Amino acid sequence: MAFEGLTGRLQSVFSKLRGKGKVSEDDVNEAMREVRLALLEADVNFKVVKDFVAKVKEKAIGKEVMESFTPGMVIIDIVNKELTELMGGTQAKLAKANKPPTVIMMAGLQGAGKTTTSGKLAKLLQKGNHRPLLVAGDIYRPAAIKQLEVLGEQIKVPVFSLGDKVSPVEIAKQGLQHAKDNNLDYVIIDTAGRLHVDEELMEELKQIHATVKPDEVLLVVDAMTGQDAVNVADSFNKQLDLSGVVLTKLDGDTRGGAALSVKAVTGCPIKFAALGEKIDALEPFHPERMASRILGMGDMLSLIEKAQANIDADKAKEMERKMRNAEFTFDDFLEQMDQVKKLGPIDQILDMLPGMNKAKGMKDLKVDDKQMGRVEAIVKSMTKKEKSQPEIINHNRRKRIAAGSGTSLAEVNRLIKQFDDMRRMMKQFSGMMGGMGGGKASK
Ligand code: GDP
After folding, report:
1. Residue 165, helix vs strand vs coil
2. What pTM was estimated for this model as a whole?
């Protein structure tokens, strides 16, 4: 996951400060030296690092901080606020035209994730009750048009295409007209990328820009490329007047430098972050939440928002009732897994919880989607009766389930044991809540 190294290093700097009742100027200097190294190692632009450290130092060395009751905490707070500022301060929202449709032009180098992000953005807008149109303007990359059409089909968003023999400027122009004619309120224009920033590419983008006069020009950059992403953003911005940046591949083990430098270097705010290949892995970028994630303080707000948007409240209540009455079956287990999956990949959910990155063993815990898939396969290979009365699942049945789900007997045994433990715990819990004292859980 992104920022892991940076978070770890910053936390060790702060835990030293936190332990101190009094903080001297030397302590602050030493801490800032380490913060500086941590940021440089995370591939943050060196000038950005220099300014950042100077700002934090200036605030931290003030009399109030050093004489405060908890100087360490106050300094962490200063770093948190400055990190937030560095990434733009407040959330930069997507532009909205006074008169629809709002035109969004996507730009970026090949492979940055432009086409994928166009689809994700359409999905996000659609979730907000908008009617987007995707325009296939990348006529050079083989299969880019097809890729957009497949994405559009998947999310039921119309895709405007004129094949690859018509100029991108003409496609953009006709696409916009198509949106107007069909009363669509957002137009997302996918454009061609190149391997490097070049004259010809910029010229084409400028022409499209002049023709459709977009309300928003979003540059898609790959966060994994670190400083390169920032340099690319800088050169695009000099020629195209970007209105925002989308950082992709933040789910990978990027060191995070791009997220922390892009706004400071280019002046362009990061508007969205992409955290995976799936169609719903795009989120509005919140600087304050990102800062708190980087500092290992979790991002409960994003998690709560996700839960509210995706989890069925009635189902959650029913599940709670079942757990309390220890009526939980394998069917409920599957259902619960489905709900959790809607929140996104498990490791990203864990990442949003405060302190999870520090929690013992969490780093090595790889609960990936594939593993969830295997668990699901096991449960689905059970008969109806087995699901509701797991106690009947004997050795022979386990062998059958393992064969049916393409897993091993050991995996089936493990899952059933976990499920039993869980049920026993629930029983005990509900007993306690009923004031009965509960039975002793046998281990
Ligand atoms: P384009 O050339 O800029 O249009 O790039 P594509 O949209 O085709 O994306 C290039 C590759 O990056 C594809 O394999 C995408 O699935 C992948 N990709 C895009 N965004 C993300 C992301 O946020 N996370 C990950 N892991 N992969 C991504």
Report:
1. coil
2. 0.73
Confidence class of residue 417 from pLDDT cuts 50, 70 and 90? confident
Give domain 4-86's CATH superfamily. Answer: SRP54, nucleotide-binding domain (1.20.120.140)
**Confidence grade of residue 436 (pLDDT, cut at 50, 70, 90):** very low
Within 6 A (CB) of ligand 1 lie 108, 110-116, 141, 193, 248-249, 251-252, 274-277, 281
- What ipTM was reported for this prediction? 0.98
What CATH topology corresponds to 306-433?
434 Repressor (Amino-terminal Domain) (1.10.260)
Q: Whose CA is nearest to atom 6 of ligand 1?
A: 113
Our mutation pick for probing the ligand 1 site, out of 106, 109, 115, 116, counting the most ligand atoms within 8 A of Cβ, is 116
Give the CATH fold of the 102-297 domain: Rossmann fold (3.40.50)
Annotated binding site: 108-115, 190-194, 248-251
281 CA: nearest ligand 1 atom: 23
Locate all alpha helices (DSSP H) within 311-389, ordered by sequence.
313-324, 330-341, 346-352, 369-380, 384-388
Q: Are 122 and 188 in contact (CB under 8 A)?
A: yes
Three-class SS state of 148: helix
Instruction: Indicate the residue type of 80.
Output: N
